[in-house]
Amino acid sequence: MTLFLSEPQEILFVESSETGIRIDKFLAEKFPTYSRSYFQYLIEQGAVLLNGSPIKKRICPEEGDEIEICFQAIPSPSLHPEPIPLNVLYEDEHIIAINKPPGMVVHPAPGHPSGTFVNALLAHCEQLAPSTDPLRPGIVHRLDKETSGVLLAAKTLIAHQKLIEAFSQRKVLKTYLAICIGRPPNGVVNAPIGRHPNNRKEMAVVPKGKEAISDIQTLAFQDPLSFVMIRPKTGRTHQIRVHLKSLGSPILGDPIYGSHRINQALAPPRLLLHAYRIIFDHPVTRSQIHLTAPIPDDLKGYLLPSCQPGVDFKENVL
To answer: I want to staple 226 with a disulfide (CB 3.0 to 4.6 A). Which of 46, 221, 255, 271 is the partner?
Structure first.
C-alpha cells in the first residue's frame, strides 16, 4: 500500500502527562490513523527528529521535547525472491517447515516490504501454493516477528487447503515454550480474546471476544522467572501473550503485554517465546508428522538449572 499525505510535516511538544512512553507508541496514539509499525518505519528512515536529531524507536521523550515528523510514502510491498538462509526442519514436494529465527517477519507488509519468510521461500522453492492474499503464497499460519520456532508453509494447492482446514479444525497440536515473569498457575485458561477496549492496536481478554483456550504448565520456577509450556487449543491473535498477561505472568521481553520495569532490569534480547513442537497429519500422505525446533540460545540463557541442556526433561515433560 502506498500512502501520501496532504500535510507532510508535524511538530509536537511533549507534555508532562505524556512522558515515559516509547516514541513509536506515543506517535501512534497521537495519530491513530497510522500504525505503530508505520512510525517505526519513519524512525528507521530518519524521518522523526527529537530536538532536531534522528532517534531510535526505543527512546521515551521527556517533557518539553520537540518532535518533528516528516511523513513519507510507504514503499508498496512486492514479492521477489531473496536468498535468505532457511533452517529447514522438513521438506517434501508438498510442504516445508523451518525453524524461524527471531526477527523474521512472515510475509511482506507496509513497513516490512522485504526480508520476510515469503521472500526467502520464493528463492528456495520452485513453487508455492497460491493464496487469496497475493502477498502470502504458501502461508498457512503465522508467528509473531520476535517469536522463534516451527513454521509451516505449503507448496501445492491441495496441501495449502488441507493445512488451512486442519488449523481451523484444531487438528494441529502446537507446543510453545516461554520465559515468564512470576509463576502462572497450571491448568486450562478459557478466556475470550478481542480488541482492547481503549487501545485498538492491542488484544485483551474481553467478555465479548472470540473463544480462546490455552493449556499452561509451569515446568520450573525460580523467583522472579518461570519456564512455561503452553499448548494453545485455538489460534487467536497474541493469544499466548494475552492469556499469560491475564494470569499476571507476562512473557519476559514482551514490549506490549509485559512488564516495562522488569524488561528494563533483565534486558532480554527479545520476546522470549518459542514455537517448540508441532504435530499434524501430512495433508497428502496422511502420515503423522512430528517436528521440533531446538530451544534457541537466547532462551536457554534464562532456563533454570533443572532445565539446562543435559537434563532429560524433554521426554518427561515435553
So the answer is: 221
3-state secondary structure of 135: coil
Which residues contact residue 41 at a Cβ distance below 8 angstroms, ignoring those fewer than 6 apart? 74, 110, 111
Nearest of 279, 285, 266, 95 to residue 175 by alpha carbon? 279
d(CA 167, CA 150): 14
Give residue-wise pLDDT tens across range 113-150.
Answer: 789 999 999 999 988 998 877 888 999 999 999 999 99
Residue 184 has pLDDT above 80, yes or no: yes
Question: Domain 170-318: which CATH class?
Answer: alpha beta
Catalytic residue of the set 24, 65, 144, 254: 144
Asked if 118 contacts 137 with a C-beta cutoff of 8 angstroms, the reply is yes
pLDDT at res. 71: 84
Provide the CATH topology of domain 76-169: Pseudouridine synthase (3.30.2350)
298 is catalytic: no
CATH of the structural domain 9-70, one choice from 2.40.50.40, 3.10.290.10, 3.30.470.30, 1.10.10.10: 3.10.290.10
Neighbours of 109 (CB within 10 A): 16
pTM, two decimal places: 0.76
In terms of Cα–Cα distance, which of 280, 279, 274 is closest to 307? 274
Cα 185 to Cα 297: distance, rounded to the nearest angstrom? 26
**CATH 3.10.290.10-classified regions of the chain:** 9-70
Are 42 and 9 spatial neighbours (Cβ–Cβ below 8 Å)?
no
Question: What is the helix (H) or strand (E) element at residue 190, kind and residue range?
Answer: strand 187-190
What is the per-residue pLDDT for 17? Answer: 82
pLDDT, average across residues 292-301: 94
Residues in the chain: 318
